[in-house]
Specification:
By secondary structure, chain A is of the alpha+beta class. Chain A contains 17 helices and 17 strands. The longest helix of chain A has 49 residues, at 565-613. In chain B, strand 1 (53-54) and strand 2 form a beta hairpin. In chain B, helix 1 packs antiparallel against helix 5. The chains are: A alpha+beta, B mainly alpha.
């Protein structure tokens, strides 16, 4: 653990820009990344502005080439349900699409910017997630999506923009809440190419990412305590790491946290590596309830680990082996301060790229740093402490005072209780004596009942007060121990607050026979389709039985390659046994009830007779 | 008085005995299923007199021989497993679970094609659940004490 005195400090009098520069992050991208943080003005000048009306009509508001930041934020009334959006890439004809795809290949060859997947994401999930992945890919036929040609055109346009204006922009914001000084670093990308470039979940025009540093004040200096990076699948406490947690948080030049950005997705990670992101399928409520009940029986009754087959594994490659931008790197940031008075941030509530009409929003562009896609305020902007679960955490200097205050309050209450309890106890005893005196006097029955009620209430009160004393002793011990430890400079485990830690995959441990498993992962779904086709053609009579048997055989083959044969066979057999049990219950429920009653009767009789005979 | 020396042998849970009994029951049922089609087709009386295939399809006799030999394999596997199981070998647990799984698939297919054998189904269910008991899995080295589950 690094002592606080070894941390970088900045005088509280430093300007916002100085503060931001002092702690600005180093972002390490993956080799093959196509889009880097850029400035919004240049991007907007390349876009057109549109309005999607509730009746399905898209209206062009400002033509490409005519859009400026002033025009972007101009007040325009709109109907409820309408969506305002920018469009970076205009609709492409077939010939234009072919042209941009060919140009994209040439550009990549020229830049030598290739990405190698390594062990693919499909080999990291089982056969059922792969089957669902196939369905997920097919779902793009029904959902709106950003085309591959749009992605290619975006890559070409971004590169020509970058050639004109060679800088990497980082938007910084400084805000102060509850004793914390919060530095937010916002990064804007022209495009998210996770799906088209890196086999990920989605593509969309424009992308906003954010990282924060949380500082506290001590003796006129600001000291960093926490960092938080926005990332998929994580929220609240899980997003932040303590400054001294060097296993998790890499720091360059003493004051610059390192972000490992996901290829294409630009999601931020604390450690370099390949992360398995999971997309849970949107299931209907009743089905989710059924799955929940099943999982309860499966885990609690049968003692099996929980299974969530209704997710699709995607890999977020945050290898950090590509371009690095930030202090001490060949490429550095061009910082720009933003806040609520920045017109494009506060006055434009629309999407920063194409509205792809995707009902689950994965392919729709995001809104700006202050807003969600629906125009509502973004939590990470208006509540940066709550965003990282820090709303309940006081800055370290306040923590000492708050602990001391708490100790004082509890001690004071204990003193009050020490006086109060004997009084109440004596009162209770006196009432008890009076009650005894009433016994045997039928004419006092009414008064007796009233007094008995009072005694019961008082007794409960005394019991509660005694319980409070006991609880306060334990609480006081805990508070005092913590106070002493903190005074001595001791700190908690830096990862105590994390419930779900994002950890990169270790692919070598997942697969038994790397090459074979990878090949199997690539072809198994197709083989499954061929087997189903053969079944339908050759043995239509046994189609359902055949389907199930083939699926089981595929799962078993898969488990063999994953070194999970024993567990998989156990699970499959258990599932089959449960189905069979339901069938038996359906046919023989009367007999089963009779047998259970007889067995219970015999057992009861045996125990009672044993009791009788000693 | 001298203290009784504790046995080094692993104590066999009651579920293991229950499973062993279920295997014997299944073995007897499967044995019946080996001979029944052969007797029905009078193979013991006249031998194999008719062709087994009609083109690409099995004849009634072919089908009977196929089902008989399948059940024979299952019965013999049952005996092998029983021996290993009573000696508390890990491989026998794995084999028995796989064998029960295969047997359950066959029973379910039979059930859905109107040839239910409820005794086999019940025995398989008992074996599958008994094999899943924590103590049984521990004694066969399938589950370690630090494992949260299978």
């Amino acid at each position: 653990m690094i002592p606080v005195s070894d941390r970088p400090t900045v005088p509280v009098t430093a300007s916002d820009l100085e503060l931001l520069r002092q702690f600005e992050p180093v972002v390490a991208y993956t080799k093959g990344e196509q889009f880097f943080p850029t400035d919004v003005e240049h991007y907007v000048s390349e876009c057109s502005l549109w309005e999607h009306h509730p009746d399905g009509r898209d209206e062009l508001l400002v033509r490409q080439g005519e859009l400026t930041m002033e025009k972007l934020v101009e007040s325009r009334p709109a109907d409820f349900g309408s969506v305002r959006y920018l469009r970076f890439i205009e609709t492409l004809s077939l010939a234009e699409s072919a042209q941009v795809l060919a140009d994209q290949l040439l550009l990549r060859r020229k830049l030598g910017n290739y990405f190698h997947t390594g062990i693919g994401r499909l080999a990291r999930g089982g056969i059922l997630p792969r089957l669902l992945d196939g369905l997920f890919s097919l779902s793009f036929l029904l959902r709106g999506k950003v085309s591959a040609a749009t992605a290619a055109a975006a890559e070409l346009d971004y590169n020509s923009m970058f050639t004109e204006d060679r800088q990497y922009t980082c938007y910084g914001r400084v805000t102060r809440q509850n004793g914390w000084t919060i530095l937010q670093y916002w990064f804007f990308f022209c495009f998210n190419s996770w799906r088209s470039g890196f086999h990920g979940v989605n593509d969309h025009e424009s992308d906003w990412e954010m990282a924060s540093v949380y500082l506290y004040e001590q003796e006129g200096q600001l000291i960093p305590e926490w960092t938080a990076y926005a990332s998929h699948d994580f929220k609240g406490d899980d997003l932040r790491r303590r400054w001294d947690d060097h296993q998790e948080l890499k720091i360059e030049e003493q004051s610059h946290p390192v972000i490992f950005a996901g290829a294409g997705s630009h999601a931020s990670y604390f450690r370099g590596g390949e992360y398995q992101a999971e997309v849970n399928l949107p299931l209907p409520g009743w089905f989710s309830g059924l799955i929940h009940t099943w999982n309860k029986v499966w885990t609690e009754t049968l003692g099996q680990p929980a299974i969530n087959s209704f997710h699709i594994p995607f890999v977020d490659f945050a290898r950090g082996n590509g371009l690095r931008i930030g202090p001490g790197q060949p490429q550095t940031w061009s910082p720009v301060l933003i806040d609520e008075s920045t017109p494009w941030a506060s006055q434009y509530r629309g999407l920063w790229g194409l509205f792809a009409r995707d009902p689950i929003s994965g392919e729709n562009a995001p809104a700006g740093p202050m807003y969600n896609r629906d125009g509502s305020p973004r939590g990470s902007w208006y509540d940066p402490l709550g965003f990282a679960g820090l709303d309940k955490v006081p800055p370290p200097p306040q923590m000492l005072q708050m602990l001391a205050d708490n100790c004082g309050k509890v001690s004071q209450r204990q003193e009050e209780l020490e006086e109060l309890i004997p009084k109440k106890a004596t009162e209770l005893q006196a009432k008890g004596a009076r009650l005894k005196g009433m016994e045997g006097n039928p004419h006092l029955a009414k008064q007796y009942a009233v007094l008995e009620k009072e005694i019961n209430t008082l007794s409960a009160e005394v019991r509660n007060l005694r319980r409070e004393v006991s609880e306060n002793i334990a609480l006081l011990q805990g508070l005092t121990r913590r106070l002493e430890r903190m005074k001595a400079g001791g700190q908690d485990d830096p990862r105590l607050h994390i419930r779900h830690l994002a950890e990169p995959d270790d692919p070598t441990q997942v697969l038994r026979f790397d090459r074979a498993a990878e090949t199997w992962a690539a072809i198994s779904l197709s083989l499954l389709m061929f087997a189903f086709a053969a079944l339908i053609f050759f043995t239509p009579r046994y189609i359902w039985a055949g389907l199930v048997i083939i699926l089981i055989l595929f799962v078993v083959a898969e488990s063999f390659l994953r070194g999970a044969f024993v567990h998989t066979v156990g699970r499959i057999t258990l599932i089959l046994a449960m189905i069979t049990l339901l069938i038996l219950l359906f046919h023989f429920w009367k007999w089963i009830i009779v047998a259970a009653l007889v067995a219970m009767g015999i057992s009861l009789m045996y125990h009672r007779l044993r009791e009788l005979t000693g | 008085m001298a203290k009784r020396k504790k046995s080094d042998k692993k104590k066999r849970p009651i579920a293991v005995t229950v499973i062993a009994v279920a295997i014997v029951v299944l073995f007897l049922i499967r044995l019946y299923q080996v001979f029944e089609p052969l007797i029905r087709n009078q193979v013991f009386k006249y031998g194999i007199t008719a062709p087994l295939f009609a083109g690409w399809k099995l004849t009634a006799l072919g089908s009977a021989l196929l089902s008989s030999s399948t059940y024979l394999v299952l019965s013999l596997a049952g005996i092998l497993v029983l021996i290993g199981f009573l000696r508390l070998r890990r491989w026998s647990w794995v084999l028995l679970m796989a064998w029960t799984g295969a047997s359950l698939v066959i029973s379910l297919v039979d059930y859905f094609y109107s040839r239910p054998n409820y005794a086999v189904m019940a025995s398989n269910v008992i074996i599958a659940f008994a094999l899943n008991i924590t103590d049984v899995q521990r004694i066969f080295g399938i589950r370690r004490d630090d494992d949260p589950g299978l």
